[in-house]
Amino acid sequence: MCGVVGAINVPNAYNAIVSMQYALQYRGENGSGIALATYGGNFFWERTEFTVSDLVRKTNHRGFEKNNQGYFSGIGHDRYGTAGDKRSFDNAQPLMAKMSWGDVYLAHNGDSPYMEEDRQDLILRGSVFSTTSDSELILHQMALVESNDSLTSIKNGLRTYRGTYALTMLIKDKEGVRLVAARDPSGNRPLALGRLGGGYVVASESSAFEVINAVYERDVLPGELLIISPDNLYSDKINAESGSMLPLRQCIYEDIYFSLPSSSTFGIPVNEFRKEFGRRLARHFGHLVKPNDIITNVPDSSNAYVEGFCQAIHREPTTIMLRRHSTKSFTQESQAVIEDTLRKKFSFLRSVVEHILEQNPDTRFWIIEDSIVRGNTARKITRVLRGFGVRFIGILSGAPPLIGPCKKGIDMEGKDGKKLIAAQHILLGTISDPRAVAAEIEANFVGYQPLQDVHDAIRSFGNDSNNFCFGCFENKEPIWGKW
Fold first, then answer.
1. What is this structure's pTM?
2. CA 284/CA 294 separation, integer angstroms
3. What is the 3-state secondary structure (H, E, C) of 151-193?
């Protein structure tokens, strides 16, 4: 779920790119990079295996003048590692390659279940890899196209790549410097197009445009290839010649968890969508909440869920946790770093909890979560509350049980799916045992949103639920039939 951005024909492209990268930092913290170009085709390229702040320090250390108006276009990347080394300078993007037709810098959000097979095939055909990232496959597929035309090379390379992608490229060919944006035909990862003055900007989420006062135009369409020059925008279809359209498989987990609430992802306003999930969750579990029970959220990703839940049962939530910083424990590269992030992630209002328990030691606490993935966050919260003296803790998940891997841009489960807590407690077929999950995270009760309600919620916003991917909830891979 990396963050990709791009801009062309904007004043001070550096500031625009870096500002959007900061706005999307929560999408990936395993690396960051930027590539910029002048009208004359001179490039500036810098990367780091850390975050945008480190990238800015590196650019300043190199003496880069960030107010230099000569850089009118560029792309940026916030890396969330799904393939290869999780934290590696070589895997940090944008990646760079020289083609027969010119230079290309690539920022990619997506993944491929065929990475190892296709990598070995390319090696046998003479390709030499400099990274362990699946994104490099795209560049090698482009290089093997026997054409000196950049558009032909890009289109055919993307057709050959067996994976998901929402990407930006900065290219220099015989036409000069241009910005490329593309989304795979399944539409699995999001990508938005905006305007800034006389130029264009691209980002993984529309919310990134707010920080630079850009105006959202539309989404880059599934299977669409945009070639943007300083004075023109050209739209093409990646698979136009084939005459076939793949079914849409947009990632519903983007709307459930990843995307910022102020974004509109796949045509769905994220904050309102999550409130609807909360209301639907209340239909199933609201009757369990007693008059003196406490309802609270896990900041900040479940804020809208608890709002919708409490609206439905005419109650007010109680704040007992504050978020210390923006880092997502989910995106970290190792269990040790996850645990360290969780220790720093929340600040508990102990005095509030103790005051509640003084009034009634048997007060029950209901925690509304967006989803339960590996159980780390939920277990951390229950242990802290137990230490405060809370006797009953119920956790309600706005999402259904996560029981399958992804391999389309999210590393939920490592390589075998065993880190998904619900997948370890399957009763029958795809039904997970919430009692076993509750025992493992040391809660008294766990309740999940039924999958049917997810379909219904999508339809309530005027979308066809058949256009979304539910693989992680069904343990079925809907695009390739292969994890």
1. 0.91
2. 17
3. HHHHHHHHHHCCCCCEEEEEEEECCEEEEEEEECCCCCCCCEE
